Chromate transporter (Chitinophaga terrae), 122 residues
Amino acid sequence: MRTHSVNEEKTTDKPIPAFKDALKFWFKLGWISFGGTTGHISIMHDYLVEKRKWISNGKFLQALNSCMILPGPEAQQLAIYIGWKLHGRKGGVAAGALFVLPSMFILLILSIIMLFMVISLC
């Protein structure tokens, strides 16, 4: 019985996805705040590795291990790396921005609502 190394690449991977399809995924992922880092990483693995096969499991795990060594949010770093791996610099920037901006807008809207509530109480 032969075991597979983490670093082995599958030759049956699908071709690189269209940039538009990747943008849709990163935008959707950015709106999902439930589950935190663990949830985001799980969603990325399920969608990118198992469902779409845009990246191999070995590359995903290698990237995740590298991101865990670095300081900062692993899920965002992983999204940026995978975006870069799929579409170069523009893919990394797009993945990073779409990962952060929706959550920023949610917090901004909640802050504005709180501000109006505090003002109305005064």
Notes: The radius of gyration is 17 Å.
